[in-house]
Amino acid sequence: MLFPLMQNINRGFARNFTILTNSRDPSLQETVIFQTKTITYLGRTGQIRKALKLFEEMPYKNQATWNAMLTVILQFDHLELARNLFVRMPRNSISYALMISGLSKSGFVFEAEGVFNSMPTGDINVISWTAMICCYTKSHQPVDALKLFSSCYGDYYELDIIPNAHTFSIVIKSCLEAYLFITGLQVSALIVKLLDENNENSVFVQNSLIDLHSKLGKLTDAEKIFYGLRPKDLSSWNVILTAYTYHLLVDKALKTFNSMMEKDSVSWNIMISGFAETGHANKALEMFIQLLRSQKPESRPSRSTFTTTLTLCATFCMLSWGRMVHGYAIKCGHHNNKNINVGNSLINMYAKCGMIVESERVLHEMLKRDIVSWNCLVLGLAENGFCGKALNVAVMALELGFFNGNTFIAVLTSCSHGGFIDEGLKIFMFMSEKYGVTPTIDHYNCVIDMLGRAGRLIEAHDILKTMPFEANSAAWAALLNGCLIHENEEIGKVAALKLQELEPNNASSFVMLANIYVRRGEMEESKQVLSLINNNGLKKDHGCSWVL
To answer: In terms of Cα–Cα distance, which of 116, 12, 5 is closest to 61?
Structure first.
């Protein structure tokens, strides 16, 4: 435990701090500076215990020493230790900014607000202000971030606290997350007023503006900013590549990519993802091979490269390519033993390709696993027909504490496909009570599908009507599917009509309704429904399957 090391840290700190501040002894000052640097070094090398011990044994400390110790503690997410130190230490603007950032990282937004609001006016600066704005943005509270920026701007401007490039980049990100384009334009005007466009720090602000315009549908404006940007850095090129792929303009992205004098792994990843998202699997894999052949240190495949490529192989069931990518991942040092994300992508890829034994082997070989690891295997087992095994693995994951909402979707899907109805209902009832996971509409839809497949259509219909959400098309489709399997025309007609109302352009619901009328012997009604399909110009998608 680290807590015993903190017992004597603050004993007499005020006296020592005062003596050092007033001391003119150069040797004493140099000793404290050296010890402070040592604390920082120990923190960077993961030796937090030694850093705490040195800090405790120091007879004199300056403000930098306290801030260095706080930085190390927060770096290792020992939030309780950080709180203990913060309330007792002498503080300056850096101390407050560090604590706000640490609380933000752990999701304690309300507590971070308390620290920010408790700051003396003299300690408030652009760093602490930006830290609090960043806290809101990271916690997906963009409106609160923008309110803090706008409400404080006038008063802080009078105090000569001017937003810097980092502040503006976070504010722009908040505008994007809140879909507030007009606010973004207002912030852009402030940027022109307050930032020197020739300053190298302003480049990443302009990059944020490119991203804002492109993702809010103003691609032409994004291009104007990009082409007017002097100088451009590599991130600028990567942002415009992302803009083109976001709008599915992969040909334009490729032309820009080929014109780039400098590329890094991010550039290659954007292009691989762009081709994958537009269905050009072969071109995406060609880009991956070109990357491997480039032999440039700055363009070495990253972990993201392998996860993206493996996801592509999983989507298109390209097993031979997936195995090749697996081999390259091992060769490049990104083996599943060392990297959770690559391991998870391998589990998913092998499962999607029907190689469930390989999926299990990857999981067992991983030195570290997370929730996604277990979810991938549970869902993979269920999709490949090993529903009983999927349920057993899911129970193991629940016992180990590796679960979230998606875990229960995978479990309920397994129970639905495997016919484990009672087990599925039991798990569904215990979700909130035992595991603290509140069911969403997706969980309810899984239960409706499970009951429908089992022929318990009245129960499924009752759940659909009484669940705390308005039933969506997925819920009615699941119920209708069960009715067609078990020939329940009465509930099926209700479901088909509702589905037709929710998705008037979906020909499948019309066809299903026509089939129900046929089963009921109502041929005239069936003809009328089918004529609606022709009159409205609707077409039912052709069925397809993979042949392996």
So the answer is: 12
Please give the single-letter amino acid code of residue 57: E
Where do we find the tokens 């017992």?
7
pLDDT of residue 173: 93
Per the structure block, which two tokens stand in for 492? 């099926």
Closest CA to 480 of 464, 466, 492: 492
User: Cα angle at 131 between 128 and 132, to 5 degrees?
Assistant: 90
DSSP state of 202: G
Residue 478 near residue 448 (C-beta atoms within 8 A): yes
CB atoms within 10 A of CB 3: 10
Q: How far apart are CA 284 and CA 419, in angstroms?
A: 39
Distance of CA 34 to the CA centre of its chain: 40
All residues at 6 or more sequence positions from 516 whose CB lies less than 8 Å from its CB, including other chains: 483, 484, 489, 492, 493, 496
> If we measure between CA atoms, which residue out of 374, 448, 382 comes closest to residue 417?
382
What is the reported pLDDT for 441? 93
pLDDT at position 18 is 44
What would the two tokens of residue 310 be?
């493996």
Both structure tokens of 544: 């397809």
Judge whether 268 and 287 are in contact, CB under 8 Å: yes
Which residues are CB-contacts of 80 (< 8 A; sequence separation ≥ 6)?
Answer: 3
Query: CA 465, CA 483: separation in Å to the nearest integer?
Result: 16
Count of beta carbons in the 10 Å neighbourhood of residue 87: 10
Residue 368 has a pLDDT of: 87
Cβ atoms 43, 51 nearer than 8 A: yes
Integer Cα distance of 307 and 138 in angstroms: 24
Q: Report the largest interatomic distance among the alpha carbons of the chain, rounded to a whole angstrom.
A: 103
